Amino acid sequence: MSAASELQKLQSQIIACRKCPRLVRWREKVAREKVKRFANEEYWGKPIPSFGDPDARLLLVGLAPAAHGGNRTGRMFTGDNSGNWLYRALHKAGFANQAESTHRNDGLKLTDCYITATLRCAPPFNKPTPKEILNCRPFLLQEIELLRNVQVVIGLGKIGFEAAINGYRELGKIELKAKPKFAHCATYKFGGITFIASFHPSQQNTFTGKLTEAMFDKVFSTAKKFLNRQDAKKILS
Asked: What is the CATH number of domain 3-236?
């Protein structure tokens, strides 16, 4: 079975997951009760599958779906302001064919980029428990194993960054002498993988100016520089 087929099979397992009773209750409650502005929409209300190019060299690891974003639309970073920021930046950098992501059938496609998350269900108050993160971890580890072309990993938010670093370490793909410090656009190279930290494009960060569009764009331009360097090395060799 190809890596792409195995990734697709894994997403089916993710969608069917009910390991965390608190998250199941919350995501389904939100899907039933909705909010006024989305009262006429049918919510997804299940774990969110990953999204993107199975041959990607760029991997993004986020925190968790939003209650009325991914939990409503069924796609990572879709239907909320965080997604607006992310796909706009990906489009500018050439990883997405359009700058908006509104629903699962809107024609959005990613090239050379794959988006996953630390947690697949929307947690109450955006705060998952350590046990819930642990329950979801095998999905991320399996994806790391199957995404065989990844050269650059962007961690969106401290939790996403640490989940990415720890996942690669746990699988024996990198060795760490010291824990990398999280700071916006901090870059670390371990073995053949470059890790880039980014503030999460949450409203808490974007509305307050902690994360500006220029700062966010820099993360993806930095990722492209590392990927271009790898391309240049292949040509020279």
From this structure: 3.40.470.10
Residue 164 DSSP SS3: helix
- What tokens appear for 35 in the block? 């909010």
Helix 213-236 × helix 81-93 angle, to 10°: 40
**Greatest Cα-to-Cα distance within the chain, rounded to the nearest angstrom:** 58
The pTM of this model reads: 0.95
CA distance 75 to 56: 18
Q: Where are the domains of the chain?
A: 3-236
pLDDT in tens, 9-36: 999 999 999 999 999 999 999 999 999 9
- Asked whether 30 and 21 are in contact (CB, 8 A), the reply is no
Distances (CA, A) of 151 to 33, 55, 83, 142, 226: 42, 11, 23, 17, 8
List strand residue ranges (DSSP E) for 58-190, in order: 58-62, 113-117, 152-156, 187-190
- Residue 20 is encoded by which pair of tokens? 């965390």
Measured between alpha carbons, how far is 45 from 133 in angstroms, rounded to an integer?
18
